[in-house]
Design a protein that fits this description.
Helix content: over 70%
Low-confidence stretches: none
Number of domains: 1
Structural class: mainly alpha
Mean pLDDT: 82
CATH architecture: Up-down Bundle
CATH superfamily: CDP-alcohol phosphotransferase transmembrane (TM) domain
Strand content: under 5%
Shape: globular
CATH class: Mainly Alpha
Amino acid sequence: MKSNIKELFSGCLTIPNLLSVIRIALIPVFGVLYYNGNILWAVVILFLSGLTDFFDGKIARKFNQISALGKVLDPVADKMTQITIAIVLYLQFRGSSDETIKAFSWVFLIFLAKEALMVIGGGLMIAFGLRPGAAEMPGKVATFVFYAVMIIIIAFGPDIGVFKAFILPNWAMMILVGVSAVLTIIAFCSYLPDVFRQVKERKANK
């Protein structure tokens, strides 16, 4: 265990890891601001969080700062952020006075279910000596679209948007969230072939 911990933290002092830590630290800030009604600042924090997610991978690859800790911190930061956003918006939609928006709140449970399965599945893989796969292109696209759509919804969403000068119609909001949900499901499915491959190889080695 000591050797595993030493390997995990070897070369961990990098800019990408710092950005991941900042992204994790911004999660409660976003939640508190949103809960207290400071929606504009919550949008700003969410935008900054998305920027750190975009740049940490770019910097890690460009300057060869990929580390074992970074491979853990980055997905943890992503999952914690997305779970927080999904919970906040689910509760917001459930409390809406618009019956259409209230009925549509169930879609956010898709995001929660996907992240819960990823966390549980990743934990089980590690427990059985398997390695959770790194984010592939479908996952990266889904994450980018998720951030973009949620920022748009918080800023311009019907009944909850902070910028009242322009409010999305219900149908536009549902299309955006629906597209993000479909991409999330596709991203989840993209991890399955690697999982099955590792399980098959493990059985063959036994």
